[in-house]
Write a structure and sequence with these properties.
The structure is a single chain. The chain has a domain of about 190 residues: Rhomboid-like fold (Up-down Bundle), CATH 1.20.1540.10. The chain is built from ten helices and no strands. The longest helix has 28 residues. The protein is elongated. The termini are far apart.
């Protein structure tokens, strides 16, 4: 029975990876068009940021093993003054190589996506995401040391997903759906008792932080341009002449004709008096004839 279950699970995984491949293949068809988008520009930092972050984590873990250091005490210990330092240091510390490996790949991909799609907001999300999620973990966490970059990972997943939906920009919405496809299962690890030894409080804090940032951090570069009056935020349908043609049930109706204004005829250019004309002979002709006679003489 166990072997049949594993075989079925393997088939499902192969099928899911096939779907992911087809999705990536379809996305690749729009890659050139995406690069023409002025807001989506590839730069070396798109790879440099995630690469530096992951390498830094591995260097710290190597130094801890090589020099036999115990850096766990630098993690977040909730509701203690000394535990506040873990807000800064905890994302760089990991308990074992499996913990570090599980965080390295999603952290690399998410930072890369954040830097590419949200270039102007990336640094703000990472820095303040570490601080706020760490503080929330310090507030709600159990009395134990909380370490690992998983809190930051949940910040990035939450921000990229919710922000993409909120912008209503089709490329970012596609990124949100991709995030759900790849990391949708992470939602279960924000609940207590799902797996022993994980900081579900840190995951929950990261999810909440990412959602708050998606609402607070604006992305004006993806704001849809306003072409029509009804798209403006101060639009009032009651003042729209066209919308007045519809009743409360949405039925079209003709507006009553406007009352005709009484036109008052002005008499400035009229006269009720009789006009008499006097005919005067033209004397210029007679004068001209007299001059002609004088010249002849």
């Amino acid at each position: 029975m166990v072997s049949d279950f594993l075989e079925t699970l393997t088939k499902l995984r192969i099928k899911n990876f096939g779907c992911i491949f087809e999705c990536c293949k379809q996305t690749n068809l729009d890659f050139q068009e995406a690069m023409e988008d002025k807001n989506l520009k590839f730069s070396p930092s798109v790879l440099a940021w995630p690469l530096f972050s992951v390498v830094l984590l591995w260097i710290i873990f190597w130094a801890e093993i090589r020099f036999k250091l115990n850096l766990t005490e630098l993690g977040i210990y909730p509701r203690t003054f000394q535990g506040l330092r873990g807000i800064i240091f905890s994302p760089f510390l990991h308990g074992d190589i499996e913990h570090l490996y599980n965080n390295s790949i999603p952290l690399f991909l998410l930072i890369m996506a954040l830097r590419f799609f949200y270039r102007n907001q990336a640094l703000k999300v990472i820095v303040f995401g570490i601080l706020l999620s760490g503080f929330l973990t310090w507030v709600i966490g159990r009395e134990s040391y909380h370490i690992g970059a998983s809190g930051l990972i949940y910040v990035l997943v939450s921000f990229v997903f919710f922000k993409g939906i909120q912008t209503k920009y089709y490329r970012l919405v596609a990124v949100s759906f991709t995030i759900i496809l790849l990391y949708g299962g992470m939602i279960w690890y924000i609940f207590p008792g799902v797996q022993e030894g994980i900081s579900w409080e840190g995951h929950l804090a990261g999810l909440i932080t990412g959602y708050i940032f998606s609402l607070a951090i604006k992305t004006p570069e993806y704001q849809k341009p306003v072409f029509y009056e009804w798209e403006k935020p101060d639009y009032n349908s009651e003042e729209d002449l066209f919308m007045k043609h519809f009743d409360e049930n949405g039925n079209f109706q003709n507006l009553p004709k406007p009352e005709e204004l009484e036109v008052v005829e002005e008499n400035y250019f009229r006269s009720d008096y009789n006009v008499f004309y006097t005919i005067v002979p033209d004397i210029s002709t007679e004068i001209h004839e007299e001059d002609t006679e004088i010249r002849e003489e």
